[in-house]
UniProtKB/TrEMBL annotation:
Entry keyword annotation includes Repeat: no
Annotated catalysed reactions: Couples ATP hydrolysis with the unwinding of duplex DNA by translocating in the 3'-5' direction; ATP + H2O = ADP + phosphate + H(+)
Domain Helicase C-terminal: 457-614
Native source species: Dechloromonas hankyongensis
Gene3D superfamilies per record: Nucleic acid-binding proteins, P-loop containing nucleotide triphosphate hydrolases
Job of this protein: Plays a critical role in recombination and DNA repair. Helps process Holliday junction intermediates to mature products by catalyzing branch migration. Has replication fork regression activity, unwinds stalled or blocked replication forks to make a HJ that can be resolved. Has a DNA unwinding activity characteristic of a DNA helicase with 3'-5' polarity.
Pfam families in the record: DEAD (PF00270), Helicase_C (PF00271), RecG_dom3_C (PF19833), RecG_wedge (PF17191)
PROSITE patterns per UniProt: HELICASE_ATP_BIND_1 (PS51192), HELICASE_CTER (PS51194)
EC number: 5.6.2.4
Protein name: ATP-dependent DNA helicase RecG
Keywords, ordered alphabetically: ATP-binding, DNA damage, DNA recombination, DNA repair, DNA-binding, Helicase, Hydrolase, Isomerase, Nucleotide-binding
Highest taxon in the source lineage: Bacteria
Length: 679
């Protein structure tokens, strides 16, 4: 058994190596931690007469009949029996060699679920093999591995068996640390999970709460924590511009605004301000619920960079959101003498050329969309990059913005609250600041659920609401399959509401409108010239109209929880009582029913996020930030939260006191994939 160095590559034919690569298996180490999905018990034989419907069992029988039938479809029917009774084996897909193996007189072992058939007990497509008269039974449970087309479970079993016999199973946790954590040894745990002995409780194995599973899950989480922590420490060794304010620009901005900072905003700014004054790059995530006031914090951070003699860039994922940030920040900062530039893909050639020239020279704050990271876009002196709704940008996009300057500080913002366990796990390489306090004046929002057969009642509610002097949003369903279809739905809704409410001024905004058209509609709505704004999800984030106090969302069951919460947060921004009406179409699936129940019962974004994580797992939640990063395969963020806490502490200790073991641990679990975590 080898004990050090890089893991040996798998030795197999080129065809087999290609199939293994499809499921991420390249080395012996990969095989060792490729663990079973489930187990089957082939260590015992069940007499046919004692096999019960619905139970997976293994029978040993002799074939006494084999025929091909063509009604109702082509199938092979095999009659077989042991001393206790008869059983039928039914195959709808089969090859000539299988038919030959199941010829009359053959003794076979078949494993599958028994069910009651027309002719008594039967198995459909059992796994089977031909055996001799006194062939011994396996001495271990049979592991069933995750696989891909053309890669048999038996082939994986053989390869993993070889890796267990000759691969590197040496410890990466120091003995004193392992005993302190009460974890079993790695070699023992992996042998047990790949080859469980007869009599092992299958429920404990499948529930993954056996001590051997706990060791594996801890090691997996530890690898993630080690990698992210190492990336965090490596960044701290890089140089970055020291952004210490040379004037009172930030104070003048605050003095000019009709509101003061909340305690949470003041704390956030103190943390960010201290980071910007360091000689290593800030990598901070600012998260807060809808309406918590992230924009003013970002503006104050930009002021610190500008007053230190550097530029700030502010990137948002959609043009409508980026443009709203531009108009708000321009309104705040230009009277204070700050030159604010705007860049988006829809700018005309001449205007774009002017903005690019300003960015490369005198512009102090540049706001835009993905256009900021395109080739040919140059900054004179970029010191701070702010990324709004950061989960909508991929790793490469955020890196591209950072590369526009000489290692600028980075502030990422998210209005999608991240559950604590997820933040500890997938965002361990970031410093996280939470705005856990809403500004005064935010009114509670009443949420109502309405079936779509009561749509007329909702139209009447909108009419009454507008007659009282308020405004309303009517958001059309998200149709993922087709942007054109979504646009048509918005158009149809606009026409229907215009017909139903002829006395009201109805507006329409969607993603296909040109930037100036979109802005004109939004400006008219903000000015009170539009009573009801029909929209697609372009208004999900950033829109702020205090007089709009009613949000209607059609086909709410098609939206994710974070989107519903974001849309609901567009109202309740003024002094008036606000409502959010969720129209749904039945019958509802179980997930949709649970989603609507959660949004109806909760207004706290962090609680909604926590329950959302339970519903759909971390994959979607983490979003494009982690594109390519291996999600946790075995550990569960909710069930194994204590392991994440443990792994965070151990990662720090191992990087300091046992760097060689830390490196080996990372090689075993991540190999070359570690690079994907460093962004």
């Amino acid at each position: 058994m080898t004990t050090s160095g890089a893991s040996a590559p798998i030795r197999a034919s080129d065809a087999l190596l290609k199939k293994l690569a499809k499921i991420g298996l390249h080395s012996e180490a990969d095989l060792l931690v490729h663990l079973p999905l489930r187990y089957e018990d082939e260590t015992q034989i069940t007499p046919v007469a004692r096999s019960f419907a619905g139970e997976p069992v293994q029978v040993e029988v002799v074939v006494h009949g084999n025929e091909i039938q063509f009604r109702p479809r082509r199938q092979m029917i095999v009659r077989a029996a042991d001393d206790s009774g008869e059983i039928t084996l039914r195959f709808f897909s089969f090859y000539p060699n299988q038919q030959a193996m199941l010829s009359e007189g053959s003794r076979i072992r078949a494993f599958g679920e028994v069910r009651g058939g027309f002719f008594g007990a039967e198995m459909v497509h059992p796994r089977f093999r031909k055996i001799g008269d006194d062939e011994p039974l396996p001495s271990e449970l049979t592991p069933v591995y995750p696989t891909t087309a053309g890669l048999a479970n038996s082939a994986l079993q053989k390869l993993i068996g070889k890796a267990l016999a000759a691969g590197d199973l040496s410890e990466t946790l120091p003995d004193d640390l392992r005993h302190r954590l009460k974890l079993p040894g790695l070699a023992r745990s992996l042998h047990f999970l790949h080859r469980p002995p007869p009599g092992t409780d299958l429920d404990t194995l499948h529930a993954r709460n056996h001590p051997a599973w706990r060791r594996v899950k801890f090691d997996e989480v530890l690898a993630q924590q080690l990698s992210l922590r190492r990336a965090y420490l490596a960044r701290r060794e890089q140089g970055a511009p020291v952004l210490r304010a040379r004037d009172d620009l930030g104070a003048r901005l605050l003095d000019s605004l009709p509101f003061g900072l909340t305690g949470a905003q003041a704390r956030a700014m103190a943390e960010i301000g201290a980071d910007l004054a360091q000689a290593y790059p800030m990598q901070r995530l600012l998260q807060g619920d809808v309406g918590a006031g992230k924009t003013i914090v970002a503006a104050l951070a930009a002021c610190q960079a500008i007053s230190a003699g550097w530029q700030a860039a502010f990137m948002a994922p959609t043009e409508i959101l980026a443009e709203q940030h531009y108009l708000k920040l321009k309104d705040w900062l230009e009277p204070l003498g700050v030159h604010v530039a705007w860049l988006s893909g829809s700018l005309k050639t001449k205007a774009k050329r002017e903005q690019l020239a300003a960015m490369a020279a005198e512009a102090q704050l540049v706001i835009g969309t993905h256009a900021l990271i395109q080739d040919g876009v140059d900054f004179a002196k970029l010191g701070l990059a702010i990324v709004d709704e950061q989960h909508r940008f991929g790793v490469a996009q955020r890196l591209a913005l950072r590369k526009k300057g000489s290692n600028p500080h980075q502030l990422m913002m998210s209005a999608t609250p991240i559950p604590r366990t997820l933040a500890m796990s997938y965002y361990a390489d970031l410093d996280v600041t939470v705005l856990d306090e809403l500004p005064p004046g935010r009114t509670p929002i009443k949420t109502r659920l309405v079936a779509d057969n009561r749509r007329e009642d909702v139209v009447g509610f909108v009419k009454k609401h507008v007659e009282e002097g308020r405004q309303a949003y009517w958001v059309c369903p998200l149709i993922e399959e087709s942007e054109a279809l979504q646009l048509q739905t918005a158009q149809d809704t606009y026409e229907q509401l215009s017909a139903d409410l002829p006395a009201l001024r109805i507006g329409l905004v969607h993603g296909r409108l040109k930037a100036d058209e979109k802005q004109a509609v939004m400006a008219a709505f903000a000015a009170g010239e539009i009573d009801v704004l029909v929209a697609t999800t372009v208004i999900e984030v950033g829109v702020d109209v205090p007089n709009a106090s009613l949000m209607v969302i059609e086909h709410a069951e098609r939206f994710g929880l974070s989107q519903l919460h974001q849309l609901r947060g567009r109202v309740g921004r003024g002094q008036y009582e606000s409502s959010c009406v969720l129209i749904y179409a039945g019958p509802l699936g179980e997930i949709a029913r649970q989603r609507l129940k959660i949004i109806f019962e909760n207004t706290d974004g962090f609680e909604i996020a926590r329950q959302d994580l339970q519903l759909r797992g971390p994959g979607e939640f983490v979003g494009a930030r982690q594109s390519g990063v291996p999600l946790l395969r075995y550990a569960d963020l909710e069930m194994d939260a204590d392991l994440i806490d443990m792994a965070r502490e151990v990662a720090e200790e191992m990087l300091t006191a046992h760097p060689d073991l830390a490196e080996k641990h990372l090689q075993r679990w991540l190999g070359s994939r570690e690079e994907l975590l460093k962004s």
